[in-house]
Amino acid sequence: MDVGTAKPAPQERAAVPHWLIDIVDPDEEFSLARYLDLAHAALADIWRRHSTPFLVGGSGQYVWALLEGWQVPRVPPDADLRHSLEDRAEREGPDALYRELLALDPTAAALVDARNVRRLVRALELQRRSAGSPSREKLQPDFQPLILAIDRPRAELYRRIDERVDGILASGLVEEVRLLLARGYAADLPPMTGIGYRQVVRYLQGEMSVPEVAAMMKTETHRVARMQNTWFRREDPRIRWLDAAADPFEQASELIREGLAR
Question: Residue 180 burial by CB count (10 A; 0-12/13-18/19+): exposed, middle or buried?
Fold first, then answer.
């Protein structure tokens, strides 16, 4: 899954070592707990060589789980429970799952997109099979992060998202999805229901046109960008916000130099 994920190009990966890329197949189970294990192993490897790691982008939940030392319950997937919750979401809509999660754990509910059935199902699975939400228990990590974020006007952010979507489609997303399906990866696998992949599957099934795919990808990515405000808040004192209009690369470089000099 290279095109739809905007995976770093081979030349980028040759210039700077990257970790946690190409580590699972589309039909393999992947969880926050497994990510944390792999991320901590990568950090230890980098520090052993006296280098400085950069944690770049990704899900707000995964970023803060690493930076805040979340202690995630080791709850294996329960296929029967998942199917039951998914069937309920199909019958009653995602709101039914969200209301249950809100009643059980308002903190966990605040961190989940109320329309993301897969995330709602996993959150409820954790609630029913463990003592609570992974956000409840934290252990201070043994590193001090420098957290940088770029502040862009929403109109510019949306423009850049739209250009990125057009570029992904032009780079062969349709053919990539066609190949994945031909290799036997089911359309209902979690990675195949992500933004872009889900819409292209519908196109290949004759349900959407390419312009409709592009429009829906843009709309859904705009929504995800807005959701990021839940995780990365302007008033969070831990985050150093960079002004996109004033050379954020130079601002970041100076802050990093200062941090490394301490």
Answer: buried
Which alpha helices (H) appear in the chain, and where do they start and end?
10-15, 32-48, 60-67, 79-92, 94-104, 106-110, 117-129, 154-170, 173-182, 197-204, 210-231, 248-261
Is the model's pTM score more than 0.85?
no
Give me the domains of the chain, ranges plus CATH numbers. 79-135 (1.10.20.140)
- The encoded tokens of residue 259 equal 């941090």
Helix (H) / strand (E) element for 235: namely: none
Place of tokens 């960008």: 225
Q: How far apart are CA 108 and CA 73, in angstroms?
A: 14
Residue 101 has pLDDT above 60, yes or no: yes
Q: How long a stretch of residues is the chain?
A: 262
- How many Cβ atoms are within 10 Å of 211's Cβ, its own excluded? 9
Structure confidence by residue, pLDDT tens digits, 104-159: 888 778 778 788 888 888 888 878 776 554 445 788 898 999 999 999 999 999 99
Specify the 3-state DSSP secondary structure of 115.
coil
Cα–Cα distance measured from residue 203 to residue 207, given in angstroms and rounded to the nearest whole number = 5
Structure tokens at 199: 């819409």
**Closest-CA residue to 190 (of 121, 253, 138):** 121
The token pair at 32 is 């926050």
